[in-house]
Amino acid sequence: MALDSGLDLFNGARSRRPRVGVLTHGSLGQGVEMKLDPARPVETVRAGTFVVVEGERFDFFSLITDLKIEAANEAILLHPPGEDDELLRRVLQGSGTYATVALRPMLMLARDGDEREAPQPVRTVPAHFSAVSEATDDDVARVFGAEANDPKRYFAVGTPLGMEAPVCLDLHRFVERSNAVFGKTGTGKSFLTRLLLCGTIRTGRAVNLVFDMHNEYGFKAPQEAPDGAAAPFVPGLKQLFGPKVQIFSLDPESTRRRGASPDVEVHLYADQVEPEDVLPLRETLNLTATATESTYQLKKHFGERWLPALLRTEAAEIEHIAESTGTHPGSLSALKRKLDRLDGLPFFHLDASAGRRDVLDELLAALEGGKSVVFEFGRYNSLLVYLLVANVLTRRLRDHYERRHEVYERTQDEADRPPQLLITIEEAHKFLGPETARETPFGKIAREMRKFSVSLLIVDQRPSGIDEEVLSQIGTRIVAQLSDERDLNAVLVGTPAAGGLRQILAALDSRQQALAFGHAFPMPITIRTRSYDAAFFEAMAGSLPGERSAEAVRAETDALF
Ligand SMILES: Nc1ncnc2c1ncn2[C@@H]1O[C@H](COP(=O)(O)OP(=O)(O)OP(=O)(O)O)[C@@H](O)[C@H]1O
Ligand SMILES: [Mg+2]
């Protein structure tokens, strides 16, 4: 007993963290509970805050998951203080009435251990009456790493609730698996995605292929004028990283109108389209299963020119084609009618015209050269074009990567290893729905491409539309506010301690705030996402080898406004 209280005194003296409460209940499975210090108004405590439970032997890095107000005695609640009885209310506070706070310990670290030791998964519970304290900047750096320690590995993505210390993402782990940014519209997904892309480009951890449906990653991107922001635009990746980023455009005119010229003008040829590229369009084009399946029969009959053949067929000849290919005439004409929309788009060619350049070759040349590619759709950003083009390219890219990897496995020569590739898709549920995820190249990448050095960055506002198996393969998730129950459940698929995290998700602000968890974060953490502003642009310039100077970046960004 004497020993115990001696230890408490010692711990108390050693602790430098501001105290918020004291531990009262808990279990390893369900998390622990503390009584809030009476001096702390309950309304200042927020779900998602990062705190430390200072046990006897371990510090437990924890998140606040829930709050409750309670009374020691029911009689108090039967006779609450009168409206003007501020004094009685204050007297009761902390003794008669009090607040309890539910915490979820996420990691633990021996209190007298080596400074460099990494925190461990939680395997025990802190003792009764352990102090619960605010985390310090040191704690944040200890758990999440610091850019200064390894600038090619750690990348600051935000700050914990109520703190200024940077929370870093482990980029090495991030690019290893597929990842996701979820949140409803206007929560800051695209801004956050741009930040993440900056991290991978700047450190060279991965080359990127961004399917930029809304033209907001390459050159300047529009910004909703928030509090005090002067400019309606922010710079894109090209302004920040210059030649390290290549713009491929389906609509060069639109790119030019926005004051820039694309590096590559993209053309798509009808004979590059395979039946499995059309399969994921079923819902978007409102086609029957029979209609999409008939693409396979067409392929069998016409070979790789099945699509040019279909699009060239006159309506009167459909019956005839249906007969010779063994397809249903109604389905076939429905398919033709829907795909006819492609014919006439300036980038789409039925003929293998002279001077044909395969965009895959140009794409591979850029990626192999260590460059990231932003694929702009300009005005041609209908779902039909977006899904089709992204599927065609990704399927072929995936085949290429698979072959490259076989060579590398044979030779084991680092020079043969293809560069780590991260493919970003917005509206991801359109590619990864339960009916199509098995067939699309994106579904295959999400499930198995980790071993081939390709991963996805999924950006979506409707995670519940994504196949469960794909969801469970996602390594790192950064989730902003969501309001649909099904979406909240979907983002937590396959996550331990999902119960506590759900409360935190429900308490997020509507903008620039997110819960980050998974493979690249040692523990879940609620962050205010790093601002994509002048200070950030400055930070992206200069300090790593091959980087553009701060002056060059400033000149580019100034020229925007
Ligand atoms: N990290 C950030 N830095 C600066 N501004 C931000 C940041 N995050 C969000 N914002 C502000 O919030 C607005 C909406 O963000 P964004 O366009 O990324 O939302 P979104 O989730 O992609 O929406 P949608 O689903 O409609 O595409 C931005 O225009 C910007 O003003
Ligand atoms: Mg967006």
Describe the protein.
A 12-stranded mixed β-sheet has the order 9-8-23-22-21-10-20-19-11-18-14-15. Strands 1-2-5-4-3-7 form a 6-stranded antiparallel barrel. Residues 1-14 have low confidence and may be disordered. With 561 residues, it is of the alpha/beta class. The longest helix has 29 residues, at 383-411. The protein is 36% helix and 22% strand. It contains 23 helices and 23 strands. The radius of gyration is 28 Å and the shape is elongated. Bound molecules: adenosine-5'-triphosphate (ATP) and magnesium ion.
Secondary structure blueprint with pairings:
Layout: H1 2-14, E1 19-27, E2 31-36, E3 50-54, E4 58-71, H2 74-78, H3 86-92, E5 97-110, E6 120-121, E7 131-134, H4 137-144, E8 154-160, E9 167-170, H5 171-176, E10 179-182, H6 189-203, E11 207-212, E12 221-222, E13 233-234, H7 237-241, E14 245-249, H8 252-257, E15 264-265, E16 268-269, H9 275-278, H10 282-285, H11 289-302, H12 306-312, H13 318-325, H14 329-339, E17 348-349, H15 359-368, E18 372-376, H16 383-411, E19 421-426, H17 429-432, H18 441-448, E20 454-460, H19 468-473, E21 476-479, H20 485-491, H21 498-506, E22 513-518, E23 525-529, H22 534-540, H23 550-560
Parallel strand pairs: 10-20, 10-21, 11-18, 11-19, 14-15, 14-18, 16-17, 19-20
Antiparallel strand pairs: 1-2, 1-7, 2-5, 3-4, 3-7, 4-5, 5-6, 8-9, 8-23, 12-13, 21-22, 22-23
Helix pairs in contact: 11-12, 11-14
User: How far is the first residue's CA from the last residue's CA?
Assistant: 69 Å
Give the averaged pLDDT, no decimals: 88
Give Rg in angstroms.
28 Å
Q: What's the helical proportion of residues? A: 25-40%
Major β-sheet strand ordering = 9-8-23-22-21-10-20-19-11-18-14-15
What's the tally of helices? Answer: 23
Outline: elongated
For the biggest sheet, the summary is:
12 strands, mixed
Bound molecules: adenosine-5'-triphosphate, magnesium ion
**Structural class determined from secondary elements:** alpha/beta
Stretches where pLDDT falls below 50 for ≥5 residues?
1-14
| Percentage of residues in strands | 15-25%
Query: What is the number of beta strands?
Result: 23
